[in-house]
Amino acid sequence: MVEFNVDFKKEGIESGVAIGRFDEALKELTKNGHKVISLSENACLRANALRRSKISQHGNDVREGNIYHKGEKGIVVANSPYLTNDSMLQEAITANANRMHYSTPNRKLYDKFYKQAQEDASKNPSERRAVLMPSDKEFALSDTQNPELFEFLFGRLGGLYLNFIQRPVDFFSISPEDKFIQHSVAFVPISQEELQKYSGTVLTPMWFSDVDWSSALRGADKGLHHDFCKVRGIRRSESIKIK
Residue 74: which domain range? Predict the structure, then answer.
């Protein structure tokens, strides 16, 4: 059974999490009038809540997705194909249940998004459809580290989120020697070693970790089949642009 819990309400914006198998969670969001939240929207809502609030203390999947092909740079896309292609999603759920990433038969899908990344390269990062990853190893995102991908994902208010996660825990005093200042967000992609197992285009969802896990972005997950997937949605009572 899919659960749906609203954990954020403020100034005409409501956000909630659907918990269940990924496809069922998507249907539950739609049922409740929510669209899958973007990473920049999610980060902005966290920054407008307490660090110990539920929206900050629980990670979830967001709207963006990741596209890979062996021997090529990974691509982050603004809208995961899993959100609109149910047949592909069902195949991915089956593949994940067998402990494999989902892979298409060929590289056509990779080439489609690579072309989008190239066509959009001159646009403002927050207006692009796709951006290339700088590495197949874990890398950092901030205003100074891979700044274009940082703005693509976190929007123009990305600096606000970094300021938010640099704060100490709400209402607690932290001594100088124990205080940890986080200056970036980690991104964990699929490695080229792992991609050698697949001949086609590999797709993964985007997981936005909670603040106590440093808000890391996981682009290598293969758990769409689990009945505890968490997909966050957003609903506005009026037209409010966050990104």
Answer: 3-169+183-236
